[in-house]
Amino acid sequence: MSCEKTYLMIKPDAVAGGKVGRIIARIEDTGLCIERLELATLTPAQAAANYAEHEGKPFYESLIEYITSGPVVKMLVAGPNAVAVCRKLMGPTNPAEAAPGTIRGDFGLLVDANVIHGSDSVASAEREVGLFFT
Fold first, then answer.
1. CA-CA distance, 129 to 113, in Å (whole number)?
2. Statement: the pTM of the whole predicted model exceeds 0.70
3. Residues that are catalytic
4. CA–CA separation, 85 vs 128, rounded Å?
5. Under a CB-based contact definition with an 8 Å cutoff, are residues 8 and 86 in contact?
């Protein structure tokens, strides 16, 4: 089996709400391996680089403000099909559309503060890992 890597970030709402341990347990329960884990507060430059594809959209400024508002947990996760497994585990971006049993379905309330970020492709994962783990 090949080992794929992906980037996950537990967002400020989940950190402040004491949900980190339960979210990490869900990731570990899949059999994926958390290779790196750091608690940090993102700089505006890191946030802008990570969400560059959303620049100019109506929600961009509030997204940057939110993601830099408090500590996040950054993770490098590895294992077979890590990107797809994590995307399925997280559920849809809007927690109201996420099924029970997914991280967003169980812990999220708002699309603007949806508990967790995850790379959407291997290419995005490589870029995000390089951005957040130097």
1. 22
2. yes
3. 117
4. 17
5. yes
Q: Could you report the per-residue pLDDT of 61-86, keeping only the tens digit for each?
A: 999 999 999 999 999 999 999 999 99
Q: What is the CA radius of gyration of the chain?
A: 14
Using one digit for the tens of pLDDT, what is the confidence trace for 106-129?
Answer: 999 999 889 999 999 999 999 999
Three-state secondary structure of the chain: CCCEEEEEEECHHHHHCCCHHHHHHHHHHCCCEEEEEEEECCCHHHHHHHCHHHCCCCCHHHHHHHHCCCCEEEEEEEECCHHHHHHHHHCCCCHHHCCCCCHHHHHCCECCECCEEECCCHHHHHHHHHHHCC
